[in-house]
TrEMBL record:
Homodimer. This is Histidine--tRNA ligase. Keywords: Aminoacyl-tRNA synthetase, ATP-binding, Cytoplasm, Ligase, Nucleotide-binding, Protein biosynthesis. L-histidine binds at E87, G88, T89, R118, Q132, E136, R263, Y267, Y268. Its EC number is 6.1.1.21. InterPro entries: aa-tRNA-synth_II, aa-tRNA-synth_II/BPL/LPL, Anticodon-bd, Anticodon-bd_dom_sf, His-tRNA-ligase, HisRS-like_core, HisRS/HisZ, HisRS_anticodon. GO terms for biological process: histidyl-tRNA aminoacylation. It comes from Thermoactinomyces mirandus. It is found in: Cytoplasm. One of its GO terms (cellular component) is cytoplasm. Belongs to the class-II aminoacyl-tRNA synthetase family. NCBIfam families: hisS. It comes from the Bacteria. The keyword Nucleotide-binding applies.
Length: 429
């Protein structure tokens, strides 16, 4: 085959092709996510891959890395400012408000699986197009719900066969807590102002909590002795956090309290948490994270209803599965491979092949004019359990030869028994 050497396109940096062998693994981790969600009464929601930029500015927060540095933002031909979604929560909350789902009995329990986009420095487990499995629950402020959602994620990891996933949990409090803590942080960081990284300095009065999340070594060192938010919690915030921990204990979900956990998004109130698993080689951080956001629905023009959710990074799930040598069940591609010899058999074979498929048997044939031996090889390569050989002579006699690949046993059977024979034997495995 000729091709023009000049026409060489490469995949955009930080994105991946998921080829069939890999796609099977994706199907499995997605299927387990769906199954787990259905066990907990969650339904799927699908929202657009892009939204008005303003939604993320308001929702995720102006002074976050995601909005400041990582969004894919563009103007469409109608001069609207749009962004590829860097995360799922903002769009899902927008939909909940816009479609007035708040008017229905609450809580609303939704999940989603799909691509997100962030302009990040790509590495293993940190991609520019990546995929999240997320859940969002609206309408309930019950701390038992926080515990349920955290447990749902753990249930999912266990269903996949992943072990050693730790839960880190913190409370970022309510507005009263935040106001008090903000002041304490500013008081603490002000004397070090000149030593802080530029970005941290810029955020000192805008969003001092973000400084705790800084990657700059010097800023990190200074932040180490900063006051703990847990000492600033209001009575209500302290109560909520205590209850969440109690319910996690009830559900036997182990966790550690990490009072430095602030998360990279601004919408959180009360509970913030992360799922952490060690993936050597991938400086990927957490495999998932989320928390409570009690003001976002109101901020998006809805009623004053609370929300809670998480996002789990599917690329990181696959990396962790690989790291822990978890075997992912893969399906055999074919049940039956049909070989025909002669023109009449070819035409009849087309019909039988279609009949097999209609009977629910995964079947295929050769379209490359291969020799018989090469066709057997093709059958093996596709994991076919049976190879059926139909020649013009057999066709005349109303017979077909069927070979069971594993045992090597070969039988001649009546054509009118063919479909039921294959079906029956495939069911038996
Ligand atoms: P997030 O912590 O920004 O939270 O992302 C959740 C997870 O997505 C991360 O823990 C990580 O596994 C994965 N992730 C994030 N960025 C990347 C990337 N560039 N490449 C690969 N994986 C990545 C959220 O997005 C919130 N919306 C979670 C949430 C839902 N909170 C409440 N509801």
């Amino acid at each position: 085959m000729k091709y023009q050497a000049a026409l060489k396109y490469s995949i955009p940096r930080g994105t991946d092709d998921i080829l069939p062998a890999e796609a099977e693994k994706w199907q499995w981790i997605e299927e387990m996510a769906r199954k787990t969600c259905h066990l907990y009464g969650y339904q799927e929601i699908r929202t657009p891959l892009f939204e008005h930029t303003e939604l993320f500015q308001r929702g995720v927060g102006e002074a976050t890395d995601i909005v400041e540095k990582e969004m894919y933002t563009f103007q469409d031909r109608g001069e609207r400012l749009l962004s590829l979604r860097p995360e799922g929560t903002a769009g899902v909350v927008r939909s909940f408000v816009e479609k007035k789902v708040f008017a229905e009995p609450q809580p609303t329990k939704w999940y989603y699986i799909g691509p997100m986009f962030r302009y990040e420095n790509p590495q293993a487990g940190r991609r520019r197009q990546f995929h999240q499995f997320g859940v969002e629950v609206f309408g309930s402020a019950d701390p038992a719900l926080d515990a349920e959602v955290i447990a749902l994620g753990i249930h999912y990891f266990e269903a996949l066969g992943l072990t050693r996933v730790r839960v880190e949990i913190n409370s970022v409090g309510d507005p009263e807590t935040r106001a008090r803590y903000r002041k304490k942080l500013i008081d603490y960081f002000e004397p070090y102002k000149e030593q802080l990284a530029r970005e941290a300095r810029d955020r000192l009065y805008k969003n001092p909590l973000r400084i705790l999340d800084s990657k700059d070594p010097k800023t990190k060192e200074i932040a180490r002795n900063a006051p703990s938010i847990l000492d600033s919690l209001s009575v209500a915030a302290e109560q909520h956090f205590g209850q969440v921990r109690k319910y996690l204990d009830v559900l036997e979900v182990p966790y550690v309290v990490n009072d430095r956990l602030v998360r990279g998004l601004d919408y959180y109130t009360h509970t913030a948490f992360e799922y952490v698993v060690d993936i050597p080689g991938a400086q990927a951080g957490s495999i998932g994270g989320g928390g409570r956001y009690d003001r976002l629905i109101g901020e998006f023009g809805g009623p004053d209803l609370p929300g809670f959710g998480f996002g789990i990074g599917m690329e990181r799930v696959l990396l962790a599965l690989e790291e822990q040598n978890v075997e992912i069940p893969v399906q055999k591609r074919l049940d039956c491979y049909l070989i025909t010899l002669g023109e009449a058999a070819k035409a009849a074979g087309m019909k039988w092949l279609e009949a097999l498929r209609r009977a629910g048997v995964k079947a295929d044939r050769d379209y490359m004019n291969r020799k018989m031996k090469a066709q057997f090889k093709q059958a093996d390569r596709n994991g076919a359990r049976f190879v059926a050989i139909l020649g013009d002579d057999e066709l005349k006699q109303g017979k077909i030869n069927v070979k069971h690949q594993e045992s090597g046993k070969q039988e001649t059977i009546d054509l009118d028994q063919f479909i039921s024979y294959i079906k029956e034997n495939c069911r038996r495995g």
